[in-house]
Amino acid sequence: MQNSPQHKTALGHIRVLDLTRVLAGPWCSQNLADLGAEVIKVERPGSGDDTRSWGPPYLKDHAGNNTSEAAYYLAANRGKQAITVDISTPEGQEIIRALVLQSDVVLENYKVGQLKKYGLDYASLQQIKPDIVYCSITGFGQNGPYAQRAGYDFIIQGMGGLMSLTGERDDLPGGGPQKAGVAITDLMTGMYATIAVLAALTHRDKTGEGQYIDMALLDVQVAMLANMGANYLHSGKAPQRWGNAHQNIVPYQTFATSDGHIIVAAGNDAQYRKFVQIGDKPELAEDQRFLTNPLRVQHRDILVPILAAMVQCKSKAEWISALEAAGVPCGPINNLDEVFHDSQVQARHMQIDMPHPCSGTVKLVASPLKLSKTPVQYEQAPPLLGQHTEHCLQQLLNFDDAKITHLKANGII
After folding, report:
1. Which domains does the chain have, with CATH numbers?
2. C-alpha triplet 245, 248, 254: angle, nearest 5°
3. How far is CA 314 from each of CA 26, 265, 327, rounded to the nearest angstrom?
């Protein structure tokens, strides 16, 4: 919908009306914004997206004091314009409908049926904008026995099988189910939603038809099971947790060094022999119990404790250097300080600094998308609550000062 994009971007012609909050929906709209789409984020007056207050930590101002912008919110909302509209009011609903007429995509993650009572559901908006692409994100989808349930990433990781695969073996200390360290189901739902929106826009451009997209966190989590899901479907046996080990390859796991942890992934017998020789345990290369991978798997309970003691004799840096030189697949387990100081991460420019009105600059994790012709553009830091309300209403809907004053006085914006 933008007539003259300032930069050569993939989606500079697209306007997205974003009614989502928290993570899955905002992750999708941030992807679209990174690719050049104009994204208008609609929030509740006074409070806004729940994640604005999900801290600490918070962005600090010029004096070093906490602002109201939580790091959680900052992670998923760059590139957007922020407006506040009370959609529970008739006047607020009229504003949204007027913005829909100026938009290509609507994103929402309200409970099933909640927007229908406001006349902002797909069936209602499709009547006034037939080519609209409308994407709903919920925990369980628009149909089925769980459709009315609220869906949270942690719960979906459990229900969708991920936690049955993640965590230490039940027969070892600390064994049991474990969630992922980030809200991976939310993030993957945002990624799948991005793909679906782009596909629907391509269809619209070819046919003139809009369409409805029904995204569910549980569906995404089941799809994410990938080869493990296929293993179950073909064997009838539910895979078990193996912690940081591999059920079919030894050694293929984490080990504690003298000052940290490393991953060793010896995928063949030659790599195993190099590993134990570097660890000053050449006799393990000739031990008849450990000559081949099937034998090492069979005797893992004997071999792994010996390897664990061996690895603890050297530092993380010593092991990585020696194993890499010998061609044994390995890697460190970095904390986030080490991640953002890693030379490869820095070479790939995975941290960006953007101007911000409260702090001068804000540090953000960059997009991993690297496009040669239409590169990602970082045009707007995560916006303040309602930062662009007046601008959007004036520029897109031609509201005058008197109308904006009226809407403010009545708490509609």
Report:
1. 15-224+348-409 (3.40.50.10540), 252-340 (3.30.1540.10)
2. 20
3. 44, 18, 18
Show the tokens assigned to 118. 């406001």
**Residue 181 CA from chain centroid, whole number:** 12
> What is the C-alpha separation between 127 and 239, in angstroms, rounded?
48
CB atoms within 10 A of CB 336: 7
Q: What is the pTM of this model?
A: 0.92
Q: How far is CA 279 from CA 214, 303, 307, 311, 331, in A?
A: 53, 14, 9, 7, 16
SS3 236: coil
**CA torsion through residues 381, 384, 386, 387, sign:** negative
Helix or strand (DSSP H, E) at 208? none
Amino acid sitting at position 28: C
Closest by CA position to 79, among listed 112, 52, 39, 114: 39
Mark whether 400 is an active-site residue.
no
Cα–Cα dist 177/169, whole Å:
9
The 10s digit of each residue's pLDDT in 45-72 is 999 999 999 999 999 999 999 999 999 9
If you write DSSP's letter for every residue of 103-170 in order, what string do you get? Answer: -SEEEE-PPTTGGGGGT-SHHHHHHH-TT-EEEEEESS-SSSTTTTS---HHHHHHHTTHHHHSSB-T
Residues 105-143: tens digit of each pLDDT: 999 999 999 999 999 999 999 999 999 999 999 999 999
The helix/strand/coil state of 355 is strand
Residues 18, 153, 186, 219: which is the catalytic one? 186
**64, 16, 378: which is closest to 193 by C-alpha?**
16
